Amino acid sequence: MLDATEHIAMYTAFSELLPLLAAGTTPLLKVKQICQAINTSSLTIENSTTLSGPFGSFSFSASAAFEVRTPTRIQVEFKEGTLQPPEIKSSIDLPENVDIFGLKISLSPMQQFLNPLQEAVASLARAISGQPPIKLPIPGGRTKSWLLITYLDKDFRISRGDGGLFVLAKEGSPLLDM
């Protein structure tokens, strides 16, 4: 999207993302990035999420069209979801230790059991490489929403929607380095 402004989520109180954020606190699955790209030329929005784990990462997104209602409010209608083919790592990437309920557990012994899977993982990566994304319609009554921009500057955006509060920083902003 050439005219899109991409923002990275720094905080959200959107209830539908809370299970995803909770899963990202597990030792082996992390939320790598949650983004929102707004394209003012085509009047479209793309919300995307990338998760990563020891075997690879996968991304999914939802695209929407929007209509400007006031200078600070837009009406949004979600059109479809997209599941990107997973990016399989050429080797299994386990951390040395994981912290579970305050107890540090070494994963080094598991590495020797996973070593035989290395070739299978590499073979899977070759098979999946280049596959097209899967497009899915957005079901039910959750296709329409609204977004109210309550603060906007060159690096920072705070928005409220019918699903919650969103605090985002523009990609490349020094705010993301904090």
From TrEMBL:
GO terms for cellular component: plastid. Residues 10-169 form the Plastid lipid-associated protein/fibrillin conserved domain. InterPro entries: PAP, PAP/fibrillin_dom. The keyword Transit peptide applies. Keywords: Plastid, Transit peptide. It is found in: Plastid. It comes from the Eukaryota. Pfam families: PAP_fibrillin (PF04755). The keyword Nuclease does not apply. This is Plastid-lipid associated protein PAP. It comes from Actinidia rufa.
